[in-house]
């Protein structure tokens, strides 16, 4: 049975004061929740603070991005080894906002995926279609291309230590959520694509749903056969809301 995973993507939000208040609230809410992996992905500048605040609690740390390079003259970049030094366990790669605003290609995202794994961290590959692509009937082709970018570069074995997050772009930050049936359709497609290459990898893959997940819809979404948790945006910035989601995952 796949263990539920709920990650909060803080995006470009937070202050030292608000972070401290949020983590204290999450530590209290997460205490004793031992059947779900819970994590937060703060902006890079706050990772060290979150490492200290989280302490020996059951809240793990993720990063929102990573460099493909191990080090050198790459101003503004953070390597996977640097992130690892500050207790990072998960790294988001290919989030739709980076695909859109930083023009990240599938090829670059695959390299970030591999750089994350090479450092002993777990990449969370974010994939999903735009509204225009969905309406044009391109869901399957978009998902296939994004999943296969890693397989084509590094083989199906690369997915043995990884997470996939399905985030329909039209549901991110819009308040619109894919129905549980729509989400399940996409998650089942992802698992089918993996199973065509390696049934064991497919069976073990944690596939998260992202896209306006809230306490009110989390239980219904995560009751679906192929939905193994959530990559949560805005709701992860409020301790009570995020707790409602990871408690639903139990």
From TrEMBL:
Keyword Isomerase: yes
CDD domains found in the cross-reference section: TIM
Biological process according to GO: gluconeogenesis; glyceraldehyde-3-phosphate biosynthetic process; glycerol catabolic process; glycolytic process
Pathway: Carbohydrate biosynthesis; gluconeogenesis; Carbohydrate metabolism; erythritol degradation; Carbohydrate degradation; glycolysis; D-glyceraldehyde 3-phosphate from glycerone phosphate: step 1/1
Enzyme Commission no: 5.3.1.1
Cellular component annotations (GO), alphabetically ordered: cytosol
Source species, domain of life: Bacteria
Subunit structure: Homodimer.
Protein's name in the database: Triosephosphate isomerase
């Amino acid at each position: 049975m796949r263990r539920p995973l709920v990650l909060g993507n803080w995006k470009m939000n937070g202050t030292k004061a608000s972070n401290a208040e949020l983590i204290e609230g999450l530590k209290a809410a997460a205490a004793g929740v031992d059947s779900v992996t819970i994590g937060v992905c703060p902006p890079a500048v706050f990772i060290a603070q979150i490492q200290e605040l989280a302490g020996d609690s059951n809240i793990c740390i993720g990063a929102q991005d990573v460099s493909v390079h191990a080090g050198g003259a790459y101003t503004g970049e953070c390597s996977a080894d640097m992130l690892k030094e500050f207790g990072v366990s998960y790294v988001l790669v290919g989030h739709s906002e980076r695909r859109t605003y930083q023009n990240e290609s599938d090829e670059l995202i695959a390299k970030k995926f591999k750089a994350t794994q090479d450092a002993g961290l777990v990449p969370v590959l974010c994939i999903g279609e735009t509204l225009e692509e969905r309406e044009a009937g391109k869901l399957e082709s978009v998902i296939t291309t994004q999943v296969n970018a890693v397989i084509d570069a590094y083989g199906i074995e690369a997915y043995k230590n990884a997470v996939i997050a399905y985030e329909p772009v039209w549901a991110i930050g819009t308040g619109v959520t894919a129905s549980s049936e729509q989400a399940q359709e996409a998650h089942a497609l992802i698992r089918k694509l993996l199973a065509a290459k390696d049934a064991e990898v497919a069976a073990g893959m944690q596939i998260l749903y992202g896209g306006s997940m809230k306490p009110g819809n989390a239980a219904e979404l995560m009751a679906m056969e192929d939905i193994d948790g959530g990559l949560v945006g805005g709701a992860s910035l409020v301790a009570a809301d995020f707790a409602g989601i990871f408690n639903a995952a139990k």
